[in-house]
Amino acid sequence: MPKILEIITNPNKILRQKSENIKSDKIQEYDELINDMVLSMVKLDGIGLAAPQIGKNIKIVIINMRNGVVAMINPKILKKSIFKEWGEEGCLSVPNTFGKVRRYKKVTCEYLDRTGIKHKIEAKGLMARVIQHEIDHLNGILFIDLAKNIKTLKQA
Ligand code: CO
């Protein structure tokens, strides 16, 4: 049975380290972890989750798209649009905090799925934003490093 994983919050050095690629013949070893990450993201109402957020510096991200949940292994941005746009972001690892981040409007992204098949997708809008946010996690970057108008909601 998949389980809900503990989310690491800022500050923590795991969130600041670069993540390692996963060798394509080792992907199956991460099947249970991916199931746990999917469940954790859905339960916590996230639209994306990167492996460093659950304490592992490996290149896995889970994204909650309109048409379902996708696990991306070794995701890489191949192409970026000329134009960028500002949008509000938050992060499960930076609780109760929001800010505006300028991101590419469109990105072309390559990744392996959990069966090791390579995909190339073009994403725009929120999907493009989430991909950029999650890939930043794999490089030790948090949205608060890039954001303006950062607001922290006070807990009642
Ligand atoms: Co995040």
SSE pattern: HEEEEEEEHE
Radius of gyration: 15 Å
The whole-number mean of residue pLDDT values reads 96
Strand content: 35-45%
List low-confidence stretches.
none
- How many β-strand runs? 8
Number of helices: 2
Please report the distance between the alpha carbons of the first and last residues.
34 Å
What shape does the CA trace take? globular
Helix content bin: 10-25%
Bound molecules: cobalt (II) ion
Q: Main sheet?
A: 5 strands, antiparallel
Structural class designation: alpha+beta
Side by side, the strands of the main sheet go 1-2-3-6-7
Keywords:
binds cobalt (II) ion; about 160 residues; 8 strands; 5-stranded antiparallel β-sheet; alpha+beta; 3-stranded antiparallel β-sheet; 2 helices
Describe what this molecule looks like in 3D.
This protein is α+β, with helices and mostly antiparallel strands and 156 residues long. 17% of the residues lie in helices and 38% in strands. It is built from two helices and eight strands. It has helices at residues 31-43, 125-138; strands at residues 48-50, 60-65, 68-80, 84-91, 94-104, 106-112, 118-124, 148-152. A five-stranded antiparallel sheet has the order 1-2-3-6-7. Strands 4-5-8 form a three-stranded antiparallel sheet. Strand 4 and strand 5 form a beta hairpin. The protein is globular, with a radius of gyration of 15 Å. The mean pLDDT is 96. Bound molecules: cobalt (II) ion. Cobalt (II) ion is lined by residues 91, 93, 133, 137.
